[in-house]
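Hi, here's the filled form for the chain we discussed.

Project: internal
Contact: R.S.
Residues: 301
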Amino acid sequence: MGQKTLAETIKEITSDHLEQHNGLLLGESISAVGWVNNTVPNVKGIVELPMTDVAGAGIAVGAALVGRRPIFVIRFQDFLILNGSPLIFFAAKTKELHGKSAPVFVRAIASDGLGPVHSGVLHSIFMHFPGFRVCSPMTPNEYREIWETYMKNDDPMICSEHRLSYPNTQELSDITVENAHVTLYAISCTRFEAAKAVESLKIDGIRCNLVNILWLKPFDITDRLIQPLKESKLGLVIDPGHEIAGAARSIAYELNFAAECSVKALGLEDRTKCLCPPYKNMAPNAEIICKTVKEMLKKGE
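And the returned structure, exactly as it came back:
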């Protein structure tokens, strides 16, 4: 047998949690449209919720309060807004205010190509509120890591998934080179595109480091993150969400401050995310990343 895909890994972890650890999985249209990209096993412990997005999170948080360690599946990350109230105003606060944790594991699934209300990446919003752990795994081992962290702690977790990651079987290693001109920091699906950009820029004589970001919050400045930047003196954080007030700018600020180097941010433009011309507004691809890097180097930023 070959290596497991990320989708298979999620399915395996979920099956073990539900069958062996008294877990619970809640969500809309779990079985009706393909078991959420074949990431959900057909086992006991699954609750199919009605199409009432404002209620589902409240049920999941209630289950967390009584010790079920629920997985709450949000098929389109845009719907985090509708489900946000119980998560933001209760799950994230109850431990600090009342000493009672609500460790719900939120699978918030992003996409590209599904229109203006089904293609958003909203993890930036939940980085803003105290009480959440926020991550964006793209590989099988990364998912195992974040799941282990969730099970060892009692904080609610926002797991920002992306459908483009589900077929992936490969671990994504950082790239470091001597005398790099720039260090790229990539989040979520832009990690695949950033790797392509590194190869394209190499052809043009531009040397790039590439650092993969898994944990958005807490965002700990480690040697792995900061050392490549200290050597290149120039950085670019890339995120599939909107750039203004987003994860890319927040992390760029922290890196800029820690390394005392110039670090820029790259994300969606400040307009509606749509995929139809002339309104196309997609996550930064390799071409856009290359163009941005060349402009930065030209300006000497």
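Let me know if anything looks off before we file it.
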